């Protein structure tokens, strides 16, 4: 079931998303050579709590941290660790969210640590832009397939590939609600987009092949071919005036 949000609910979601976006910003600013992923997780958690939110990934299906921090060939769901030290040249995907007054925000971005390769830069720029192409397609009267089509076309035209096993989603009182929002698809297919829908669009784009595998920790998703992967996500509202990004800083 797809829950359409009222104006009152959107107001609360805006606050949850403001906290989520602020936490992502300071977490990204903390990415530096020598920093551990556990330290970044702690910075994000403290910020969310200080702002009156609750880290909504923590304990979600048993997930043990505030943020997912995934480096280089790690696609998503990397578990923060005191033993995982970020080094210059790494690309670091941070995904996190906050719950506020019963509603969820969810967002992600990939950050560069120091100087990175031109290929890594191009992957990050393409993934960020593919998210914006997807957002631009999230208009009343459109369909869910329009979003995935926009993301996929943009990423594949640049020689990159789209992860299929993980998708975007509705967001609201639950972190993951209907509908699923794939990053691939066909224009004009899928459910119709309606005012009051709140969704997270979150392309995961690989520099090599699209295939992924899960590590023995049961969480960390890796590219099968060892290629780099980037991830960007915004929570947005579909409104009569067009898509509104709720997780904007
Ligand atoms: N990264 C997921 C999303 O953006 C949510 C993470 S669930 C967790 O939808 F359990 F890994 F935290
Ligand atoms: Co999400």
Describe the structure.
By secondary structure, the protein is of the alpha+beta class. It has a single domain (7-245), classed as Alpha-Beta Complex (Creatine Amidinohydrolase). It is 28% helix and 25% strand. The chain is built from 4 helices and 17 strands. It has a 5-stranded antiparallel sheet with strand order 10-9-11-16-17. Strand 9 and strand 10 form a beta hairpin. The chain is globular, with a radius of gyration of 17 Å. The two termini are 30 Å apart. The structure holds 2-amino-4-trifluoromethylsulfanyl-butyric acid and cobalt (II) ion.
Write the layout of secondary structure elements.
Elements: H1 7-29, H2 37-50, E1 54-55, E2 67-71, E3 74-76, E4 91-96, E5 98-100, E6 103-104, E7 107-112, H3 118-136, H4 144-157, E8 161-162, E9 168-170, E10 177-181, E11 198-201, E12 204-206, E13 212-214, E14 221-223, E15 229-231, E16 234-239, E17 242-245
The structure holds 2-amino-4-trifluoromethylsulfanyl-butyric acid and cobalt (II) ion.
Identify the CATH homologous superfamily: Creatinase/methionine aminopeptidase superfamily
Which ligands does the model contain, each kind named once? 2-amino-4-trifluoromethylsulfanyl-butyric acid, cobalt (II) ion
Cα radius of gyration in angstroms: 17 Å
Uncertain segments are none
Rough shape? globular
Overall average pLDDT? 98
**What letter string, H or E per element, gives the SSE order?**
HHEEEEEEEHHEEEEEEEEEE
Proportion in β-strands: 25-35%
Relative helix content: 25-40%
Structural class: alpha+beta
> Biggest sheet, open or closed, and with what strands and sense?
5 strands, antiparallel
Oligomer: single chain
Number of helices: 4
* Amino-to-carboxy terminus distance: 30 Å
């Amino acid at each position: 079931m797809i829950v359409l949000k009222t104006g009152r609910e959107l107001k609360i979601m805006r606050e949850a998303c403001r906290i989520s976006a602020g936490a992502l910003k300071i977490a990204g600013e903390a990415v530096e050579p020598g920093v551990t992923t556990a330290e970044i997780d702690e910075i994000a958690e403290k910020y969310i709590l200080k702002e009156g939110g609750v880290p909504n990934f923590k304990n979600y299906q048993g997930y043990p941290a505030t943020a997912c921090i995934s480096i280089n060939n790690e696609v998503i769901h990397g578990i923060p660790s005191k033993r995982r030290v970020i080094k210059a040249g790494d690309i670091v995907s941070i995904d996190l969210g906050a719950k506020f007054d019963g509603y969820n925000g969810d967002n992600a971005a990939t950050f560069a640590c120091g100087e990175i390769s031109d290929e890594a830069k191009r992957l990050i720029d393409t993934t960020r832009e593919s998210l914006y192409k997807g957002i631009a397609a999230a208009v009343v009267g459109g369909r869910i397939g329009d979003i995935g089509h926009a993301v996929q076309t943009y990423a594949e035209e640049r020689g990159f590939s789209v992860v299929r096993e993980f998708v975007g989603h509705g967001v609201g009182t639950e972190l993951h609600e209907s509908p699923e929002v794939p990053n691939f698809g066909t224009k004009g297919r899928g459910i119709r987009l309606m005012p009051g829908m709140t969704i997270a669009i979150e392309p995961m784009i690989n520099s090599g092949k699209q295939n992924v595998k899960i590590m023995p920790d049961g969480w960390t998703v890796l590219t099968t071919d060892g290629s780099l992967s980037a991830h960007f996500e915004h929570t947005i509202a579909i409104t009569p005036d067009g898509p509104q990004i709720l997780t904007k800083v």
